[in-house]
Design brief:
Probable phosphoglycerate mutase, six-stranded mixed sheet, Rossmann fold, 190 residues, PGM_Phosphatase, phosphatase activity, 6 helices, 6 strands, His_PPase_superfam
Length: 190
Amino acid sequence: MPYPELYILRHGETIWNAEGRMQGALNSPLTERGKGHATKQAALLSDIDLTGFQILCSPQGRAFETASIALARKVPFIRTDDRLCEIGVGDWQGKLRHELQPDQPLDDGPDGPVGLYELAPNGEGFERLEARCLGFLSDLASPAVLVTHGITSRMLRSIIVGRGRSGVAEMPGGQGNIFHLKNGVQKQLG
């Protein structure tokens, strides 16, 4: 299915990201480094004409704080959508990643071991996250700038490039990044 042109931003580093904590629905504020990530996003977007683009953001504080910095010169207000929230991590919310004992080895990366998010007891899991993201994308009728979270961003981008939930772990990650998606092709800015 063809999707509108998108710019997908991941929030800047938070205190809990720096500590290696699972956030899920919980929140912690941006660090100074995280505010720097958002400032860099603003610079990357400064020369891009976003006329006609919707601006949609996760209502979670870390994403909204990032959007407020990154898009301050672009839009007078930011609309939120709950479907852009981070994947639910159930019983693991607030826990340090190194305290978790998954029963299988996991590859680590810039967002921690992505597979942990699939294993979280009482968590949302990739199947339900994929359904939520598909619903969101199906409702998009025009180009948009999305401000979201690490795993949710990966799922959205994996769907758009035709990989679905099986491609989430292979999507590039990291804090404070911007991905441009158009005609099923993903390009990282900066």
